[in-house]
Write a structure and sequence with these properties.
Number of helices: 8
Number of strands: 2
Structural class: mainly alpha
Strand content: 5-15%
Low-confidence stretches: none
Shape: elongated
Distance between the termini: 38 Å
Strand order of the largest sheet: 1-2
Order of helices and strands: HHHHEHHEHH
Mean pLDDT: 92
Largest sheet: 2 strands, parallel
Radius of gyration: 18 Å
Length: 154
């Protein structure tokens, strides 16, 4: 998304592609949700700072996906999905909405599967992780994820 002359359709498409709600954009922009709807509907010009913020987040997501793909060893891959921003931030250092992180993770999963690698996305379970981590020398959420069985039942 180019920040100069961002169209309403580009703003809305980028927001949706990143899994962001109109409420999130409004909060970040310090405006009412109605204002975001006006931007997306073409009733008001899209401010450059909002367009830049979404472009920056889209770039972060692309970098995240690329770095995970570059660092992925051959073999089965398990990636994590987090239920809330606080746990996501604590586990990864990312300050994204959990929906944006989930979309990034799914992009990685799709690419790995396209390459013929077994890959899955599982929910991070804080309680199970704490119990598991107590018996580990250097616990990480990814280390916990890698120990989870590949049972296909929910």
């Amino acid at each position: 998304m180019q920040t100069e002359g961002v169209t309403p359709a580009e703003l809305k498409t980028t927001r949706e592609a990143l899994g962001l709600s109109s409420d999130w954009v409004a909060q970040v922009g310090g405006v009412a949700v109605r204002t975001v709807r006006h931007w997306e509907g073409g009733a008001a010009r899209v401010p450059s700072d909002i367009a830049e913020r979404l472009e920056d987040l889209a770039r972060q997501v692309a970098d995240h996906v690329a770095s995970l793909l570059a660092a992925t060893p051959p073999g089965p891959v398990t990636l994590l999905r987090y239920r809330d921003e606080a746990t996501l931030r604590q586990a990864t250092g990312l300050s994204w909405p959990v929906s944006t992180h989930a979309i990034a993770q799914l992009r990685v999963i799709a690419e790995l599967r396209d390459r013929g690698m077994p890959a899955r996305l599982i929910w991070f379970n804080s309680e199970e992780y704490r119990s598991w981590a107590a018996a580990q020398d250097r616990p990480t959420p990814q280390g916990w994820a890698d120990t989870q069985p590949w049972d296909r039942t929910p």
